[in-house]
Design brief:
This protein has 207 residues and is an alpha/beta fold. It has helices spanning 25-39, 68-77, 94-103, 134-148, 178-200; strands at residues 8-14, 42-48, 80-88, 91-92, 122-129, 157-161. It comes from Mycolicibacterium psychrotolerans.
């Protein structure tokens, strides 16, 4: 159960290359992390980014038909960001890279005490794929998210890799392996715990 009655909010940005309603392993692992977050009293919303027109660029709003501002507002309203990506040619998806590029605009978004707007928010990561690369992808995502201002919890990432040279996806599994299922839950619990801590004890003002 949740540690208090406070309602935290989480948004999962699914960086699959597959638009809705296609099945997606990146979406499924978000669902699995959300199960524990909801049990912790967290309100959860998933966004499949490829369903939106996210314009290239590093501004908060690129104008015209850019739909990133809709997603950005969800991130600003959330306490926890879960970034989920498949592994393609050993790297995060191009969609995940574009999300990071758009989040770069938040470096100049400060509160009235000089802190980054994202400084009070928690970021966690999920990676799926049937090839190696999860640790490297996690490291790259965490570095970028931390630069923007997000706080990374202890054991804040989860992943699943299929057998080398295989073709099985996370969504094809009859049952999630115990190690992955346990890690999904740990990531969610740690994220909720840290988000509550940050809500009660903000970072000091920047000088």
């Amino acid at each position: 159960m949740a540690e208090s009655n406070e309602q935290l909010r989480a948004v999962g940005l699914i960086c699959s290359l597959k638009p809705s309603p296609a099945e997606s392993s990146s979406a499924l692992i978000v669902d699995h992390v959300f199960e524990t977050l909801r049990a912790q009293g967290v309100q959860c919303e998933a966004v499949r980014c490829v369903d939106y027109n996210i314009a290239p660029g590093v501004e908060a709003d690129m104008g015209d038909s850019d739909q990133w501002p809709q997603i950005r507002q969800k991130v600003l309203d959330a306490d926890i960001l879960l970034l989920s990506t498949p592994t393609w040619v050993g790297h995060a998806s191009s969609v995940a890279q574009r999300v990071l590029e758009r989040l770069d605009a938040e470096l100049s978004n400060k509160d009235d005490q000089g802190r980054p707007a994202m400084a009070g928010k928690v970021a966690i990561v999920a990676v799926v794929g049937n090839e190696d690369g999860a640790h490297k992808i996690t490291a790259d995502l965490f570095q970028s998210l931390n630069d923007v201002g997000f706080t990374i919890p202890s054991q804040g990432s989860t992943y699943w890799n299929g057998p080398a040279m295989g073709s099985t996806d996370y969504k094809d599994l009859d049952e999630v392996p115990e190690g992955t299922a346990s890690t999904n839950a740990t990531v969610a619990r740690n994220a909720a715990h840290l988000a509550r801590a940050l809500r009660h004890a903000e970072y000091p003002p920047y000088e």
